[in-house]
Amino acid sequence: MSVIEYDVIVIGAGVAGLTAGSWLSGQGLKVALVTTGEPTACLSTGCIDVCAQNDDPLQGIAHLPAEHPFHLVSNATIHQALNDFQQIMTDMGMSYTGGLGKNRRILSAIGTFKTTCLTPSTMQTSPQNENEKIHIITFTGLKDFYPGYIISRFPNASFSIYNAGVPTTMGIAANFEDDTFLEAFILWLEKQNIREDKIAFPAVLGLESAMSVKERIEHRLERPIFEIPTIPPSMPGRRLFNGLKDHFRRKGGVIYWGWPVAGVEKTGRQIEAVIAESRGRPNSLNARAFILATGSFVGGGLWAKRDTIMEKVFNLPVFVPGGQEVWFDQDYFSVNHGIGETGIAVDSSFRPKGCPWDNIFVCGAILAHTEALKNGCGHGFAIATAQAAAQCCLEHIR
Amino acid sequence: MKYEHCIRCTICVENCPVFRVNPEFPGPKQAGPDAQRFRNGREKSAEEWVLLCSQCKRCEMACPCGVEPAQIILRAQQRYGLEHPHTAAHLLFANNYYLSTLGSITAPLANRFAATKIGKKIFRRMGIATYIPFPKFSFKTLRGEKKARSREARKVAFFYGCFINFYRPDIGRKIIRMLQSFKIDVVLPPQWCCGLPALGNGNAALARSFARKNVASLSNYIDAGYDVVYTCTSCGLCLLHDYQGILEIPEAKKIAENSFDLYEYVLKLITEREIKPNFREVNRVLAYHIPCHLRALKIGYPAADVIKLIPGLQCRILDDACCGLNGSYGFKKINEATAVQLGRRAVSLIQKTGAEAIVADCGSCRMQLSGLSGMDAFDPVEIICESLGIKGKK
Hints:
The complex is a heterodimer of chains A (398) and B (394). In chain A, 28% of the residues lie in helices and 20% in strands. With 398 residues, chain A is an alpha/beta fold. In chain A, the strands form 5 sheets. In chain A, strands 1, 2, 11, 12, 13, 14 and 17 form a 7-stranded mixed beta sheet that branches. Chain A has a 4-stranded parallel beta sheet with strand order 8-7-9-10. Chain A has a two-stranded antiparallel ribbon with strand order 3-6. Chain B has 394 residues and is an alpha/beta fold.
C-alpha cells in the first residue's frame, strides 16, 4: 500500500509531463510525477516546434492528416498553452521569442536553417539568410562544434577561437557562470576587432544565467549575439527542462526520480496505483487519475521487439502501421519512416482507444500518428496536447 | 550492470557535479559504460581517475535507459583499490569507524588537536583537506545511551549511523524522544559502520565484514517484530542497495524489506492515522537541501512532506546541486578544489532563496553547507522537535 494518496500521477518528466503536471497543480490538485530518468528534452535544441509544414503553424496543423492528434486540440487551447509556456519561461528567467502567427528560422550547427515556432531568446537574432555577416566564436578543443560547416555556406562569415581551459560543452558553460571568466572572455572578444554585424556562439553561454551572460556580452560589444544549438549535451535543452521542472515544483508538484514503473494495481475500470522497481518493500503510489507522457522510442515510452511494439507502463494497445516492411523507408535520412506513426491512439478525451481503464490520459510524443520528424511538431505539440489532456483529466476528477 | 543499454545520450554527463568542475574526470559516460567495454580481468587496472567519482549517484537518477554508471564506476574503484596501494587518506577514511571510536574516547584531546595549526598541517601532509573544520567528536556517544523501559506495541530498532553516534548524539537523542512521543518503543541494536566509507575508499572486504555483522544483528530484531529505522540517507542507501548489490550479503533483502527512512516511517504513521502529531507554529524560512543519496533512495522527499505539515514554516526544496563533500570524498586533498567549487555553487543557490537557515537529512551535507556559508544547518528532526515542543538533553 502506498504512503501518500495523490490526485494525479504523471508518468514522464518531459515537456508534456511537466506541462500537464504544472497545469493540474495550478488547478489545486495534488500531483506527483514519476520518471525513470531525465527526458529527451535535455537532448533537444530547446526550440518549440509547433508545426513546420507551413510558414503559419496553425495553417500547417489544419493541413495535417485527419487522424493526427493535433486535431483533438482546439486552436484556443493551443494559443493558451503556448502563451502559458512563454509566461512560465519568462518567470523562470529564460524567456522565449516568437509567436503562433509565424514560424521562424534558426541557424543550425551545420549551417542549414531549422524551422521552428518559439526559440529561446538567446537565439533571437539568429540570421535569416546565408548572406548575413556573422562572426563565429568557437572554443579550443570543443569537438561538438565546427564553424567550418557554417562558413562553407555563409560567404560573409569568419571565426575565432577562444581557449576556455576546458574542451567540453558542460565545462565551458560552467565557466561562463563565473564572473571572472566572463570578464576575461569579454576583454579578449573586444580585442578581436570583429567587423561583422552579429556574433555567433555554440550554445555554451552558461546554464542558469544564460540570459544575463548574453545581455552582458551584447552590451559591451554593442551588437547582437546569438547561440547556435549543438549536439548533446545541449544547454538550451537543459535550460528548458530546468525551467519547466522548477516551475512544476513551485506549483507544489512532487517529483520521484529514478522511478521506473514496474507494475500497476487495478480494480475494475480504474488504475489504483503504480508500483516502482524496488530492492525492498514494494514501492507504490496511489492516485485517482494517471497521465501517460513517457514519450516515444528514445524517450522510453515505446519498446520495439522484432515483431511487436509495446507500451511499457500499462501495456496499452499500440497502433502500429502494418508489418515490419512498412516500418522503415529505404533512405536512412528520410522523414517518411512508417514507424513514426506508431503510438497510442486516443479518443477525443485523450483516453487510449480500446483501453480497459477509464482514468488514464495520454499526451505528448507517445500519441499515434504524430510523425514528429515529418511534420516538425515537437515540443509545441507536447505542450498543446499536455494541456488538453490535463483539462480532460481535471473534468474526470471533478 | 546494464552498460550495453547506454545510448550515449550524455544526460548523465550533464548531471555529473564532478565533471562540471574537474576536467580531470572524464564523466560518468566515459568512466562508466564506455570504459566498461574495455575492462577485463586480465590486465591490471590503470585508471586512477575512477577515484575522482564521488558516488553521488546523480548519473543513475538521470539515466533514461536504466544504466547505472555510478555502480559500474564503484566496481572499477574496488578493482583499482585491490590492485594498488592505498594512500594514507584512503586508509584512514575506510577505517573511519575505528578512527572515530578512538576519537570519541579521547574526544577532548582529539578535538583540540584537530583544531590546532600543527594538527591541520599533519592532516594536509596525509592528503586530508582542512578547508572546513572537522566535525567534533562527542565524548558521550549515542551508543552508551541507556534504554528507556516501555511496553509499546510498535517497536523500532534505530540504525543511527556513525555521524550521529560519534559527532551529533544530541540529534540521535532528539530522534529517540520524538519517536517515544509518538508512543513508539525505540531500541539501539548492536551496530557497526554501514560500510559505505570503506566501499567509497576502495575496500570492499572491510565493507563486507561490517555489512555481515550489521545484517546478523538487525535480522534478529526484525524477527522479533521490530521495524528498522535509519536516519542517515547514505547509510540507508548502503543498507538497501549495496548490501544486496555489490556486497552480495545473504539475507540483505530481508533488511531492505523491513527498513525505513525515519521520516518515511513517520509520514507512513501519519497517513495511516496511527499518530496525530500536534504541530505548533514555527516561524522560519528554510532552504531544504536534498542530499544526493536521499534522491537515490527513490522514496521521494518524506522529511519535506512532514515539515510541510508545520504551520508558519516556509521551506524551499533544492535538489539540483550536490554539496560536493560526499562523506569522505571532499576531505581528501585531491578532491578539495572540486568539493569547494561545488559547495559554493550549492550555497549560492541556497542564498538566492533568501532562507535564514538550511535543512538537510545528511550530516555531511550540513557540515559542508554550514561550513562554507556560515548559516545554521539543521537536521529535519530539530525543526520537528521545535514544532512539537520536544527539548533534547545534551
